[in-house]
């Protein structure tokens, strides 16, 4: 690729006390098959060795610049990186998440399918634990084009480490909303930005699981109560602007709360369960009853169809398949691809050490 066909992509990595995971994140970024990257690590006032680790890594990959700010939260750190970016497209990744080596290259290919080659690109993700082992994955939806209303109903992008977004439109939308953190509701800054972009831009999809999204106890996405407060604050002005969508948005709020409750229950996080149970009982009793009845009916219907097909001697319906390989629980995210050896990815003689303007 060359010229306009090969834009400089700015990777923005907000990092707060991230020395345990940052090296793995940087390796996954350095090893991208598309190497015309500017990599900005924004140290958000860390008190551990995050700054030193990023600076040392930058000695081997000159595409890396390390920025510092007083601790202000992930939104301010991302916004700092976006303001400093030289590339027309921004690819954020949190300092504990990882990428498939072809993520950026395939996203750029998808970008060219949009009118004028301009818009936002996302992909599916695999959920990984502290050790990089897969335990789940996003629902493989196929939304493209105008995705505003589907995204209101379900945050299918699901994290801050997936999209490729045009810098100019991010700035036009005001970037990530740091005010959510100031109101004790940090967590849905990424969703708020995606919704703002979806009102003005088309979205394209790379139908594959190219992001390894890490869930650990104590990270932002694990604080369910705060995330739900954040979700409510993000949705309130949208309901005011689009009252005809209020029912869908409230259904999405219920589904979000139910998702966090199930996640806490399955993860034996009883502190979260204890916080969420009274809130669910107070706000969502009718929805819980309706959901339980719907689930029971669907299960009964599925069993009836299976029994009828068996009696009639018809084969079971084939499971819906996608071209992408579905992530298998219990396997490492890194097993989904042939990894570039770390020493090769950051070798001083590699083209990856060359700065791009």
Automatic annotation (TrEMBL):
Give the highest taxon in the source lineage.
Bacteria
Domain Glycosyltransferase 2-like: start-end pairs: 10-144
Against Pfam families, the record matches this protein to:
Glycos_transf_2
InterPro entries membership: Glyco_trans_2-like (IPR001173), Glycosyltransf_2 (IPR050834), Nucleotide-diphossugar_trans (IPR029044)
Gene3D superfamilies named in the record: Spore Coat Polysaccharide Biosynthesis Protein SpsA, Chain A
Recite the UniProt keywords alphabetically: Transferase
UniProt keyword Transferase, yes or no:
yes
Q: What is this protein called?
A: Glycosyl transferase
